[in-house]
Design goal:
The protein is α/β, with parallel strands linked by helices. The chain has one domain: Vaccinia Virus protein VP39 (Rossmann fold), CATH 3.40.50. The protein contains eleven helices and ten strands. Helix 6 packs parallel to helix 9. It is globular. The N and C termini lie far apart (about 50 Å). It comes from Gracilimonas halophila. It is an enzyme of class 2 (transferase). GO terms for molecular function: methyltransferase activity.
Length: about 300
């Protein structure tokens, strides 16, 4: 029987609930499943084959085994930069980014799951970082002033958002002129079977929310970005023991031979302009005062 397609609000609530659960799950479980959601696989699921542990700034407590790339590795972060991480989870990418910005920089993580924000703040406290902040908020409506960030990063998150063009418009808004992003995400070439595309649990597992690669890149261009570059691309295979929860044997065979490609891509794009240093608004409100990067007032 064909399932009812979830509304954007219902999908977001499914993601919020699932990622609250994921925040309490062990890393090895998340690595065996579909971005931590969906069914547990009997073999390691290769959606997270990229290993963070060799990157400077890596913190094992903040690594939940999620993601589909290493955007911070490609993000061209410099000392003193202001970096925003979308869907920051327990803070893994933020702490890697903080190593690159140094104490004189500023890193802001945004997540709409309160338990993830709590875990990320605890991790930052353990590390003693006073220039890494975590804000509760929706990346479709970021609690951030415009033209403040040098770099935006995100790892396997935009595919979870129903309104992707709005997110790219928000990224464009918060970046300084001359700023750029590096984002890892899941995209498609070919159509997913209805059972995968319509299942809310599989949506929370990153795959069902993915859109066509060309459409994804078109959204970036339409938001006003230039110098759009795919920095890395790799195929994603869904193990049959996960597929079997959604498809019968015939449908699995058709899916595997049907030419549908699921890929992880890491994309770079830039906002036009030379850039200008701007004071950072703290706590997302104009009345909250300002904080120079590295001043320790976070």
């Amino acid at each position: 029987m064909k399932t009812r397609t979830k509304s954007p609000e219902e999908l977001k609530e499914t993601v919020r609930k699932k990622y609250s659960e994921i925040s309490e799950q062990a890393k090895d479980y998340n690595a065996r499943s579909c971005c931590g959601a969906g069914g547990d696989s009997t073999k390691v699921y290769n959606i997270m084959t990229d290993d963070y542990s060799e990157l400077e700034g890596y913190n094992s407590d903040a690594d939940l085994g999620l993601g589909c790339g290493l955007p911070t590795q490609f993000a061209r972060i410099k000392k003193g930069d202001y970096v925003i991480d979308l869907g920051s989870g327990a803070g893994n990418d933020c702490f890697v980014a903080r190593h690159e910005t140094g104490a004189e920089g500023k890193v802001l993580g945004i997540d709409f799951t309160e338990s993830m924000i709590t875990k990320a703040r605890e991790n930052a406290d353990k590390l003693g970082f006073n220039n890494v902040e975590f804000r509760f908020g929706d990346i479709e409506e970021m609690p951030v002033s415009e033209n403040v960030a040098d770099v935006v990063v995100s790892n396997c998150v935009l595919n979870l958002v129903p309104d992707k063009p709005k997110v790219f418009a928000e990224i464009f808004r918060v970046l300084k002129p001359g700023g750029h992003f590096s984002i890892s995400d899941i995209v498609l070439e070919g159509e997913l079977p209805d059972a995968l595309r319509e299942d809310a649990e599989m949506y929370a597992g990153c795959v069902a929310g993915a859109i066509q690669k060309k459409t994804y890149l078109d959204h970036i261009k339409e938001a006003g970005f230039e110098n759009i570059t795919i920095q890395k691309e790799k195929p994603i295979d869904i193990p049959e023991d996960i597929l079997s929860q959604y498809l019968n044997e015939t449908e699995i065979a058709e899916f595997n031979s049907g030419g549908t490609g699921i890929y992880s891509i890491t994309v770079f794009a830039q906002k036009a302009g030379d850039g200008e240093q701007k004071k950072v608004t703290m706590l997302g409100t104009d009345g909250a005062g300002y904080c120079e990067p590295g001043s320790g007032c976070c």
